Amino acid sequence: MSDAIIELSGVVKIFRDFWLRPTVKAVDGLDLEVRRGEVFGLLGPNGSGKSTTIKMILGLLAPTAGSVKMFGKSPKSKESRSRLGYLPELSYLHPFLTARETLRYYAGLCSLDRKTAGERASQLLEMVGLSGVADRRVGGFSKGMSRRVALASALVGKPELLVLDEPTSGLDPISTREVKLLVKALAAKGMTVLVTSHLLADAEDICDRIMILNHGKSVAGGRISELGSSLEEFFLAKVGSGDDFALADFLA
Is 144 left (phi over 0), alpha (psi -120 to 50) or beta? Predict the structure, then answer.
């Protein structure tokens, strides 16, 4: 049995305009493999193709060419999606529901019975540090608190694969540390985690392996422990600083 949970082979994604003329090649010949039980970081500057790649892995976009598999099947299959948990970059929650009701709602979507849904909601709220505000409406939560509710919602079905898009966005340093510890604990229990982040220090703390995208292509990758430098230095060496002008000339 293969250890690969996610497999991309020769994936290309071209966006077209109204007249079906190609406008942007967002992903260009990408090969990617995420193995069972690891934390894999997909990194890159804005416009590098990270979001498009994630959407194809989730089955929200179809590749123009190449193949995308999740658990050896199409990411659009019911079987694949039943084993997936997803935290999007922006947390969209029903503001009139409490934190507990939110988790019970998502538990219902995962076909959990009423008793199991209640138990799991309580466990997850304790896990993300929100048990004390479980019966407050999420519409009054801070961005960081809403983020933790969304993370708990992604875990309510006990997924085998967890996809986290900017998981520490909006969190204070203490909450960020708690999320990173949680991700490492989940991976230690056998959960596979795919994470995207602009915060290279966070990725360096939690990822086993990383891939850096630039202009839709993989420009580097490997194990964090084998980089030979900090992740920030490695990243900048591969994609550059992004400065397109001389500051001295601009200020002159």
Answer: alpha
